[in-house]
Design a protein that fits this description.
single chain, mainly alpha, 2 domains, 3-stranded antiparallel beta sheet, globular, binds manganese (II) ion
Length: about 230
């Protein structure tokens, strides 16, 4: 009787043990399957040839900017995401919590996002704004010329490296700039809103053709603005 009891007890214990182990492993598998993978940044295909924006933006600058600068940001941010176990699952979540990330993640994550946005915001043979974007610009700044003047001033006035932005915020358009590779989606940014238009004013964006004359680069850039793309952000 005693041995039967002992066997029964052992059997029950083993079964309970097996259940516990099986249960734990089932929960771990579920947690693993449910945890979405961290965001991986990728480079958008350049929507035009390297020389397509000539003479306003030269071929060599486009080539180096896209294939050297931009690709370096992509490698570096994805390295940082892996090394630092960053858990953000989307680019927007990454930007919204960037204050908690390393300088490497912030600078390179911003670098990838900003350039993807910048490439798509340009096109050869640009015509002026029309439709929704034209109405929004007139409504917020009075006229296209006034808008260009204020945006150019922000781009010229950004000391050192950074970006000029047109953003939509609560139904209004705003102009501003950010330092380094920061952008208006970042929680650390003073300028907040949905990006509509961006201009890279790092020296690497214009120095080969314009040297120190950032003002000439800005003036030339208006000839390649993709207004339809900007309009699609509203
Ligand atoms: Mn750049």
């Amino acid at each position: 009787m005693e041995s039967v009891n002992r066997r029964t007890f052992l059997g029950t214990s083993l079964k309970a043990g097996a259940l516990t182990i099986a249960g734990a492993s089932w929960i771990a598998d579920e947690a693993l399957a449910a945890a979405p993978a961290p965001v991986q940044f990728t480079q958008v295909p350049l929507p035009y040839a390297y020389d397509a924006l000539e003479p306003h933006i030269d071929k060599m600058t486009m080539d180096i900017h896209y294939n050297k600068h931009h690709t370096a940001y992509i490698k570096n941010v994805n390295d940082a995401i892996a090394a630092e176990n960053i858990t953000a699952t989307t680019e927007l979540e990454f930007m919204a919590g960037v204050s908690k990330l390393s300088a490497k993640a912030r600078n390179n994550g911003g670098g990838v996002w900003n350039h993807n946005f910048f490439w798509k915001g340009m096109k050869p043979g640009s015509s002026g704004p029309s439709g929704k974007i034209a109405d929004a610009i007139n409504g917020s700044f009075g006229s296209l010329d006034k808008f260009k003047e204020e945006f150019s001033k922000a781009a010229l006035g950004r000391f050192g490296s950074g970006w000029a932005w047109l953003v939509a915020d609560n139904g209004k358009l705003k102009i501003g700039s950010t330092p380094n590779q920061d952008n208006p989606l970042m929680d650390v940014s003073e300028l907040k809103g949905t990006p509509v238009l961006a201009l890279d004013v790092w020296e690497h964006a214009y120095y080969l053709k314009y040297q120190n004359k950032r003002v000439d680069y800005i003036a030339a850039w208006w000839n390649v603005v993709n207004w339809d793309e900007a309009s699609s952000k509203l």
